[in-house]
Amino acid sequence: MAEVLTRHPLAILPLGSLEFDGPHNRRGPDSIVISGIAECLATRTGRLLFPAIQSRQRLAHTAHFPGTASVRPEVMTLYYAGVGRNILRIGLREIFIPNGHDGKSGPGRGASAPVAD
Q1: For the chain, is the Cβ count within 10 Å smaller at the N or the C terminus?
Q2: What is the residue range of 94's domain?
């Protein structure tokens, strides 16, 4: 494990979304796109890639569509902070978080402060 941490001191943790984007689209295009971008970045830089965290936060906006996973923003903030703390606990020192959905901005920023302390 120490060798992996030495070679990959930066973690890449993409944030995506799992939601209904219309009958013409498959579910989760935001996660698919950001996962692809993050994978290219990890390949080019030799960094450690974590799987995308997928959820949807605007409960009223798309909750009635089938296949939409909705989670309250404060729960996502706590979840992101927990994942971030665990990434740091295993020895990685930095986390790059590419965001594939604007709804993740608030919880993502809210989670960064407690993790950085």
Answers
A1: C
A2: 1-13+71-117
